[in-house]
Amino acid sequence: MVFVDGTNLLVELINRYSLEERAETPSDEVINLASKLISQALSGSLGTIGACRVVRKYWFGSRQGSDEDIQTLRILLKRYGYDSSIYPKRKGRNEKGVDLAVAREMLMQAFHRNYEVAVLVGGDADYVGLVEDVKRLGRTCVGVFPNGNSMSDKLLISLDRYFEIAGPAEVLTYQLAKARAQSAD
Fold first, then answer.
1. Which of 13, 130, 177, 178 is 20 to 30 A distant from 159 in Cα terms?
2. What is the layout of strands, in order, in the sheet containing 57-63?
3. What is the mean pLDDT of residues 78-83?
4. 3-state secondary structure of 65
5. Beta-carbon contacts of residue 102 (< 8 Å; ≥ 6 apart)
């Protein structure tokens, strides 16, 4: 199973590639970019772990805007194969609930033995305890995230395996799609 801290990932991608985006109000193009980069990392990494398949993909994040904006994001994520939990983000306030939702789902699914390998797409040190708990339940924990300042060394050490998300070609595709969308407006 794949567990994506979507906000954490979007912030890192936006910073790393200097994208003109805000994680609180992601465009369809940046969600597409993130999905492609995750898929690319999974296709390259899961084969090295052994025979396993993706059972389910979860995306956790927050979104500024109306209930309709949140619903639109959830529909988009469903098109990319993700079950999503999107929380309202209030302007000027910190995100609430995402890390806890990731931990709750990952632990619950591990406890019920619904997966052998947990793929955590996030780089936050807050996940170290979660990874250790999941491993105590006999599951393998793999990290997939852009390597950089926001990838916690403590989390990196706690994971069984780590694979870097990288994709300049996908970033160029994103930039072209974003330019087309802006010219259509």
1. 13
2. 82-88, 57-63, 2-5, 117-121, 140-145, 161-164
3. 96
4. coil
5. 3, 5, 58, 60, 120, 122, 127, 130
Which band of pLDDT confidence, cut at 50, 70 and 90, is reported for residue 92? low
CATH class of 2-179: alpha beta
Residue type, 30: V
pTM > 0.85: yes
Tokens of 86: 């999107």
End-to-end Cα, the chain, rounded Å: 38
Query: Please, what sign has the CA dihedral across residues 26, 172, 82, 58?
Result: negative
Taking the C-alpha atoms of residue 145 and residue 4, their distance in angstroms, rounded to an integer, is: 10
Residue 159 DSSP one-character state:
S
- Of the candidates 101, 92, 88, the one whose C-alpha atom is nearest the C-alpha of residue 62 is 88
The pLDDT tens digits for 18-36 are: 888 899 999 998 998 899 8
